[in-house]
Amino acid sequence: MHAEAERHLAQADPVLARIIHAVGPCTIRPRRNCPPYQSLVQAVAHQQLNGTAAQTILNRFVALFPGTKFPAPEAIVAASEEQLRGAGLSRAKVAAIRDIAHKATTGHMPTRREAARLSDDELVRRLTEIRGVGPWTVEMFLIFTLGRRDVLPVGDYGVRCGFAKAYGWKELPTPKELLVEGELWRPYRSIASWYMWRVLDAK
Predict the structure, then answer these.
(1) Which whole number is the average pLDDT over 134-145?
(2) What is the pLDDT of residue 203?
(3) Least buried of 10, 35, 66, 195, by fewest C-beta within 10 Å?
(4) What residues are annotated to the active site?
């Protein structure tokens, strides 16, 4: 699926060429059936938690709304703060998730079709107006839900750590430094970021 991007990155960057050879093909697959509001709710639940803990909380959250794979925004808006907190969500995350759901009911949240017509920058501007949704949350949405291939999450700790490890930097690059270094990876910076995460996973 990403063979063209992998070839381009390998030709542009010898270090990344070795990583691609060692790791193998990129496995990012857009979540085509996931509405934007659901993706953002899930991303907020994952903030500052490891994957296992976040998924446990998400499972409890969904269980609050029997008979559905994922609750509709109207159901989330109608739920009390106490109910949502009972799933293990922090007060700040409950406030963010309720605002995401509210924006989805008022049309502020773009549909999947509307999001496809908006640029990355437009989506960042529009979605970061929602409480608790920062640039990183939108960047994860762009990469993993919409499948945008030229997103570089310069504030992501894992990408910065993976870069430092791969390129032999003694200190983590600053977001500005990573932005400059990542110019080499255009127009496939999302794919390069995925490989930086894999570097961090490697022993």
Answers:
(1) 92
(2) 64
(3) 66
(4) 156
Q: Which amino acid does the sequence have at 39?
A: S
Cα–Cα distances in Å, from 99 out to 40, 44, 57, 64, 102? 11, 11, 18, 18, 5
**Domains of the chain, start order:** 3-28+151-201 (1.10.1670.40), 36-144 (1.10.340.30)
Rounded Cα distance between 4 and 10, Å, is: 10
Indicate the angle between helix axes 36-46 and 51-63, nearest 10 degrees. Answer: 130
Neighbours of 125 (CB within 10 A): 13
For the chain, the C-alpha Rg in angstroms (whole number) is 18
**Residue 196 CA to chain centroid, in angstroms?**
14
| 59 pLDDT more than 90 | yes
DSSP summary character for residue 161:
H
165 confidence band (pLDDT: 50, 70, 90): very high
With DSSP H G I counted as helix, E B as strand and the rest as coil, what are the percentages for the chain, rounded to 5? Answer: 65, 0, 35
- DSSP letter string over 92-154? HHHHHHHHHHHHHHHT-SPPHHHHHHS-HHHHHHHHTTSTT--HHHHHHHHHHTS--S----T
Model pTM score: 0.86
Closest by Cα among 127, 170, 180, 143 to 27: 143
Length of the chain: 203
Q: By the 8 A CB rule, do 71 and 65 touch? A: yes
At residue 51, does pLDDT exceed 80? no
